[in-house]
Design goal:
The structure is a homodimer.
Chain A lengths: L1 E5 L8 H14 L4 E5 L5 H5 L11 H9 L11 E2 L5 E4 L8 H5 L8 H7 L7 E5 L6 H9 L2 E7 L2 H21 L5 E6 L6 H14 L13 H8 L3 H4 L4 H19 L1
Parallel strand pairs in A: 1-5, 1-6, 2-4, 2-5, 6-7
Antiparallel strand pairs in A: 3-4
The structure holds adenosine-5'-triphosphate (ATP) (2 copies) and magnesium ion (2 copies).
C-alpha cells in the first residue's frame, strides 16, 4: 500500500490540490484510493461536500478511540464519494484541540499508522493531506507515510519556509528512527513572472537531490474545478495542470518501483 | 493604539502580505508601527531577514515570562527594521509547542493583550499576523485586537473556509464577552478567471455586512518585493496591489474614526 503524506507548514502552497489530484488520477486507473484529511480546517473534506463543522465521525474519532485505549478502526468512518475507487476519511474542526488535549501523551503520534495497518488489503493508495502547522496531526502523517511530498510555491517567502519544513522532517526522522523518502514539488509556477523563474532556479541550486525536475503550473482550471466540487482530472484530460500532475505521478510510480 | 489582527485558518490567503503592506503604509505616514508575528512558521519574521529557527527572543519569550508568573514585557524583545517607524516582534518555530505545553493553563490567552497594554505610548499601530490554525496563538490575537481583518482568497475552497473562521470568531467573542469588529477583505482577485468573479459575487451575497467593497488584485509585484526583502510600498507607489491596499487603509481609518 502506497501511503503518501502531502505536507508543508507554509499555507496555500497546493497541498490539498495535490492530494486530491493525485488521488483522483490513481482512482481513474481503477486503483482503490483513500484520501485522509488531517487538516482541522477541512478543505479536502468540504471539497467533497462534507461539513467539517458537523462533528460527524472521521479522523477525530480515531484519536478518541486511541485515547480510550482501543485499537483505532476506520472501517465505520470512511465515506464514499461520487467517484469510483475514491473514498474519504474526513476532518472536523474539533481536531484543532488535539494538541492541547493529547499532545504529550504516549503513542498519539501513531494513531494514523495503526489505523492504516488494518486497511492494507482494501486500498492500493492513501493520500494524506496535512494542516499548515507542525503538531500531533502532522507527526501522525509523517509516522504513517512511506513517502512524503512537499509542495513548494515557486516564490521567495515559500522557499524560506522550505528549510523549516526540512528541519522538521529531520527532527521527526531522528525521533522515529525511520528514514522518510521525500520529494519537493514546485507548485503554482507562473511562467510570466521573473520571481517565479528565479525561485525555481534557487530550488534547483539548493535542493536538487530531492527535487522533482518538473513544475506544476498556475492553471485557473483548478479554481473552476473546486467551484464545481469536482477533482480536476474528472473535468479535464488536457488541462496544463493535469498534464503536469500526470507527469509527477509517473515519476513517483517509476521511482517507487525501484525501491 | 490601533491593534489589528489579520487572521484566517485557511492558508495562503495573504495574511502576512496584508500585515506587512498595511504596516508599511502606516510607517510611511510617519506613524510608529509594530508588526507582531504569531506564526511559528515565521513568514513575517523571515521577510525582514530574521531567522525563526534561531530561537532568538521574541513572542515565545513572552509566553515563558507569563508561564513563570511574571508580567510579559516586550521592551527588550522588539527589533528594528531598516525602515523608519517600523519594528518587529519576531516569531520562532518553538511557538509550535505552545498549545501542547500551555494550552489549557489559565490566562495564556491574554499574553499578547497584557504585553501590548504596556506599549500603548510607544506605538500608534500594531499589526498582528496569525498562523493558519486555531490555537492559543490565534486566541491571543483575537483577545488583544480592537479590529480583525480576515483576508479571503476569491475562490471557492477559501469561501467554504470563511464560515469556519466566522464560527471561530463567534466562539471566541462568546467566551471573552467582547465584540470584535471584523472586516472581510477579498484578496488574490484575478479578474481574468470566471471563478474569481463568481466567488466575489458570492461574498457580496452572503457576507455583505462585514465585507470591504474593494478587492486586492493578484499583482506579481508582491512576489518581486518578497524576493527583494522589501515591503512593496517601499518599492512602488503605483503598483495595482499598493493602490488597492491604500484604498483599504483609507476605508479602515475612516471607519475607525467613527468609532
Ligand atoms: N496549480 C494551481 N493553479 C492554480 N491554482 C491553484 C493551483 N494549485 C492550487 N491552486 C489554488 O490555490 C489555492 C491554495 O491551494 P490549496 O488549498 O490546495 O493549498 P494548501 O497548501 O492545501 O492550503 P492550506 O495551507 O490552507 O491547507 C486554492 O485556491 C487552489 O484552488
Ligand atoms: N495580491 C497578491 N498578488 C500576488 N501575490 C500575492 C498577493 N498577496 C499575497 N501574494 C503571494 O501569495 C502567497 C501567500 O501570501 P501570504 O504568505 O501573505 O499568505 P498567508 O495567508 O500569510 O499564508 P500562511 O497561511 O502560510 O500564513 C505569497 O507568496 C505572497 O507573495
Ligand atoms: Mg490544504
Ligand atoms: Mg502568513
Amino acid at each position: 500500500m502506497r501511503i503518501w503524506a502531502i505536507a508543508n507548514q507554509k499555507g496555500g502552497v497546493g497541498k490539498t490540490t495535490t492530494a486530491i489530484t493525485l488521488g483522483a488520477l490513481l482512482s481513474l486507473e481503477g486503483e482503490d484510493t483513500l484520501l485522509v484529511d488531517l487538516d482541522p480546517h477541512g478543505s479536502l473534506t468540504s471539497y467533497f461536500g462534507f461539513d467539517p463543522e458537523s462533528g460527524a465521525d472521521g479522523v477525530y474519532t480515531l484519536f478518541r478511540q486511541m485515547a480510550a485505549g482501543q485499537r483505532p478502526s476506520a472501517k465505520e468512518l470512511i465515506r464514499p464519494t461520487s467517484f469510483a475507487h475514491l473514498q474519504v476519511l474526513t476532518a472536523s474542526t474539533a481536531m484543532a484541540t488535539l494538541d492541547r488535549q493529547l499532545g504529550t501523551r504516549e503513542g498519539m503520534g501513531l494513531v494514523l499508522k495503526r489505523t492504516l495497518q488494518s486497511l492494507s488489503a482494501e486500498y492500493r493508495n492513501v493520500m494524506v493531506d496535512c494542516p499548515p502547522m507542525l503538531g500531533v496531526l502532522m507527526v501522525n502523517a509523517l509516522a504513517a507515510c512511506n513517502r512524503l511530498l512537499i509542495p513548494v510555491q515557486t516564490e521567495f517567502l515559500a522557499l524560506k519556509g522550505l528549510d523549516r519544513m526540512l528541519h522538521t522532517l529531520k527532527m521527526i526522522q531522528r525521533s522515529r528512527q525511520i528514514p522518510i523518502d521525500h520529494l519537493i514539488v514546485p507548485t503554482l509556477f507562473d511562467r510570466h513572472t521573473e520571481a517565479s523563474a528565479q525561485s525555481l532556479q534557487r530550488l534547483h541550486e539548493h535542493y536538487h537531490e530531492n527535487l522533482w525536475d518538473g513544475v506544476i503550473p498556475v492553471d485557473a482550471k483548478f479554481r473552476e474545478a473546486s467551484m464545481a466540487g469536482l477533482p480536476l482530472p474528472m473535468m479535464s484530460d488536457t488541462a496544463r495542470g493535469i498534464q503536469a500532475y500526470r507527469a509527477l505521478l509517473e515519476f513517483l510510480l517509476d521511482s517507487t518501483r525501484k525501491t
